[in-house]
Automatic annotation (TrEMBL):
<dbReference type="InterPro" id="IPR029063">
    <property type="entry name" value="SAM-dependent_MTases_sf"/>
</dbReference>
<dbReference type="Pfam" id="PF06325">
    <property type="entry name" value="PrmA"/>
</dbReference>
<protein>
    <submittedName>
        <fullName>50S ribosomal protein L11 methyltransferase</fullName>
    </submittedName>
</protein>
<keyword id="KW-0689">Ribosomal protein</keyword>
<dbReference type="GO" id="GO:0032259">
    <property type="term" value="P:methylation"/>
</dbReference>
<keyword id="KW-0808">Transferase</keyword>
<dbReference type="GO" id="GO:0008168">
    <property type="term" value="F:methyltransferase activity"/>
</dbReference>
<dbReference type="InterPro" id="IPR050078">
    <property type="entry name" value="Ribosomal_L11_MeTrfase_PrmA"/>
</dbReference>
<keyword id="KW-0687">Ribonucleoprotein</keyword>
<keyword id="KW-0489">Methyltransferase</keyword>
<dbReference type="GO" id="GO:0005840">
    <property type="term" value="C:ribosome"/>
</dbReference>
Length: 198
């Protein structure tokens, strides 16, 4: 069902609900459709970008772990020159494409694991809700360190999950937003990523 995103009513998303039948897409043994729910990191980044469009206006954006595509949609609405939305889950890519069309924007979508590769050709990287597991957090931090060394500006959105590499993050803004699995709203922050050496 297409509904305004909580805390970001400028954007409408197809989201899971009790009768959406999304479990049929992944099967009983398949991964949970995380892209079908509202997560605080993506929500806080989307809200920040729409409130501060100058951070993406006229720039090439790379949205790592795009999920539903909420951040990619926000970036295009805020005037980004282009957006590359990336997720390892092909169903997330499909959801992001549907959400882009529903919001009247267009961006490129890839289902690729970039974390062990070279920095992508972009000006700004947005990273929401990827620091939820220690091993993944180490891979993401190493990748972001390489990207920052290549001159990419990196914005991270997160509600303060345990593996978050706080030593690499500079607080930029905060909003109280909903988070999947939580009642009410949670305090979530936007950070600028900095390598330990910078």
């Amino acid at each position: 069902m297409l509904t305004p995103a909580p805390s970001v009513p400028d954007i409408s998303l197809y989201q899971a609900h009790a009768h959406s039948g999304l479990r049929r897409l992944v099967g009983d043994d398949g991964p949970s459709p995380y892209w079908a729910f509202g997560w605080a990191g993506g929500t806080v980044l989307a809200r920040y970008i729409l409130d501060h469009p100058q951070v993406v206006k006229g720039r090439r954006v790379f949205d790592l772990g795009t999920g539903s595509g909420i951040v990619a949609v926000a970036a295009m609405k805020a005037g980004a020159a282009s957006v590359m939305a990336v997720d390892v889950d092909p169903l997330a890519a499909l959801a992001a494409r549907l959400n882009a069309e529903a919001n009247g924007v267009l961006f490129d979508i890839q289902t690729t694991d970039y974390l062990d590769g070279a920095p992508p050709d972009c000006d700004v990287m947005t990273v929401g809700d990827v620091f939820f597991e220690a091993g993944l957090a180490l891979r993401v931090t190493a990748f972001l360190t390489r990207c920052q060394a290549a001159g990419v500006e990196i914005l991270v959105g997160d509600p303060g999950r345990k593996p978050l590499p706080l030593n690499n993050l500079e607080h930029v803004a905060g909003y109280d937003v909903p988070d999947f699995g939580q009642s009410g709203v949670v305090p979530a922050k936007v950070y600028r990523f900095r390598s330990a050496a910078s």
